[in-house]
Automatic annotation (TrEMBL):
Key words of the record: Membrane, Transmembrane, Transmembrane helix
Protein name from the UniProt record: DUF4190 domain-containing protein
Lineage per the UniProt record: Bacteria, Bacillati, Actinomycetota, Actinomycetes, Propionibacteriales
Ranges of compositional bias, category Pro residues: 1-22
Region (Disordered): 1-25
């Protein structure tokens, strides 16, 4: 390019941007389900039958999600959410077992009779 030639014209306004290499990975639905059920199982320790079900669901969906994410070759993401769901579900189950053991041994009063 010399000084006698005019410069090339600038790109047009609104010119399409070339694609960046395909579709971005999306979050796994099982990972989201695992995280939600794992988190909800924690306050459900006081309602232990529901807490047990939600904790087990959080662990199962978390394991299935991590397996799906590992075999998706980058098409799915959310392994951290799945792991958090597994951890929350396991903590909830452990707390429920501790509360049931303490209630069975009499350390926690389950009589709920109050006198004034």
């Amino acid at each position: 390019m010399s000084y006698s030639e005019p410069p090339p014209p600038p790109p047009q306004y609104g010119a399409p941007v070339p694609p960046a290499g395909g579709m971005p990975p999306k979050n796994s639905g099982k990972a989201i389900t695992s995280l939600v059920t794992g988190i909800v199982s924690l306050p459900m320790v006081c309602c232990w039958p529901l807490g047990v079900v939600l904790g087990i669901l959080g662990i199962v969906f978390g394991v299935l999600a991590r397996k799906d994410i590992a075999t998706s070759s980058g098409a799915l993401k959310g392994a951290g959410m799945a792991l958090a769901g597994i951890i929350c579900g396991a903590v909830a189950l452990a707390l429920i077992v501790i509360v049931l053991i303490l209630a069975a041994s009499g350390a926690i009063d389950t009589d709920f009779e109050y006198s004034s």
